[in-house]
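Feature request disguised as a bug report, sorry. It would help if multi-protein outputs had a clear separator. Right now it looks like this:
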Amino acid sequence: MKSIFAIAVFLAVLLPVHSFADDTSKGASVLGVEMMFWDSIKDSKSIEELEAYLKDYPKGKFASIAKIRITALKREASQPAPPAAQTVPPTPLAAQTAQPPPAPVVVVPMALVKGACFVMGNTFDEGGEDEEPAHKVCLENFHMDKYHVTQSAYEAKTGKNPSRFGGCPNCPVEMVSWDEANSYCASIGGRLPTEAEWEYAARDGGKKIKYGTGKNEIAPGDANYQDSGLLKTSPVGGYPPNALGLHDMAGNVFAWVADLYDGGYYASSPKDNPKGPANGNAHVLRGGSWNRNAYGLRAASRIYGAPDFRDADTGFRCAK
């Protein structure tokens, strides 16, 4: 245990801290130390190590997951060993209805999204101020990747795989900045989707739907998010698509979109094919990720990052 703390403190002093887009730099530094501590024990089956994390970070980013893991480990320790013969449980419905595509996905297939008008923003009276006001938007037809761009697709084009969770050809590429995502899409004859296009596609073509899964409720079998307990990215196509055939429009990794971020933009957004504000210092991220809770996975939820921001929960998909 002492060695884990020592390593975490040593790394915190020597390594540059990677900050989240919506944190202050002081908060980001603390979070960087916490992330390094969590990375060192995230696969541990030691109750002592998980309790040590909770002692240092009782309200930390992974506190709820640590508590769940501790409860499960204690329950497992108290149960007798299972009998030698076990009945094979039935395959979960999600696994029956959606299977990851064969590796490697070097060219991500696209789906046609037929344009129409819809109400964009906070339509469930539970979002942040930057989701207000709900407003009418009309879009032309466009195409969007069915999956996040995979590690194999990105590496085939760029010769690089920056992902923290590497070694998984069909997992989303992550640790990619907006500049890099934008450049990749342009290099294959596409572009990043606009924020309006992304939300329209996540809502099954502009319907009043809370999540990009096509549902108003969400459970671990629907998407890879905090409650799923995976604590990392998962292969694209592993969860059922929405009505447009798009996978992981909620969870797995956030997706960069083309628009610059402005918290008050919705009040002045044009109705037809909006492309975001003309000026700004950050770009919008949509969809939630493996380390976010259900609230962060809502189709209307918005966060943002600087053009050079990178994180293990941040990827992208292309449009045209």
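(second protein starts here, but nothing in the output says so)
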Amino acid sequence: MKGRAGVPKIPFADAKPRPRNMKKISTLLLAIAVFSLGWIGSAQAQESEDGWNWSGDFRLRFERSDEFNNDVDRTRDRSRLRFRFGGDYAFNETVKIGARLVTGDSGNSNSTHEDVGGGNDYFGSFDVSLDRLYMNYSPEWAQGTWFQFGKFGNPFQKNPVWSGFVWDGDVQPEGVAFGRDEGTFSWTVGEYVLDENSSGTETLMTVAEVRMASVQGFDLSAALYDYDNNVDSILDLRDGAPQKSYGNLFSGTAFESDFTIFNAIGSYRMNKLIFALEYMKNLGANTDNPLVEDTGYAAGFSYQLDDTNKVYYQYADIGNDSILADFAQDDLPSDLGSGWAGNIIGWKHDLGDNMQANLWMMAVTDSAYEDAADDYRIRLDFNLKF
């Protein structure tokens, strides 16, 4: 990847700002949810028959980060917590509504984690918010067809080894999506609302995907994320200048490029081994600028060692304008979504029913600097699902 010297970077900056805040919900709701889990667990089978379906998860994370670029030599250790609890209710075979409560800053769409000791409130309560609230309609007159309205998980295919290069799994879009599943072949189309403006132009994006699944061990998908030309409105502007790009390039107070992102994912499963390739290209990139990198790719594999252990490895090289970085993964120590290359390696170990430990590390290079040293991050996650 080409280097681009002289671009300022803020080490260990605050997490990415979400373009529009969600309303916070009282942490009392989380307490009620926690104390209700025992009752829900005992009544779940009966409630499922009555139309209810509940699920949730808890994570405890230990993390160490080392950053060496931009004249910085800094190490950070922190612990993090995450709790998610949600459910859906089926009125009948065609109509369903759902919602989910999560911890984390409601102004940061890329993370539902809370730092232990984070913030300036000194033992203050964690925030809880709704990151999903939707209705699903699956008409009887068109079996396999579905419509979804509201705020929901992005329904596109994920990289089975390590995902989030184009779209972070924590980011829940708002708008409408519909599609059709015909067994091995499916398609999805959607219109997402990034910013509703009562006195100006709305910021929208159109998405589409086609997928061929489980054909002789192959899964293939091709997706398009088309952001309209008003996407500059998501920038964090202060005193007339963008404060952070997460890897994308600027031209004045706007993005250097437009963003129409093509994303292809292919994987092959052979018994316990999975190979995966991912490719992304920004068809709207300003390639007249020699600093613009309009393509990216990732290649990796996972291998199931036995019933309780799995290892995985992924290499990625993500061009600075190959994606819109605001909605990509936020796992790098330098907080970059694009403009980086590096390695990700991990080991997952099942500790029991619905309990898993995940030890993983990344070593990545920031393409904003010539002859940049690697930044490192290592994480140990304990995940419990119910």
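Even a blank line would do. Unrelated, but nice: The CA atoms of residues 32 and 317 lie 44 Å apart.
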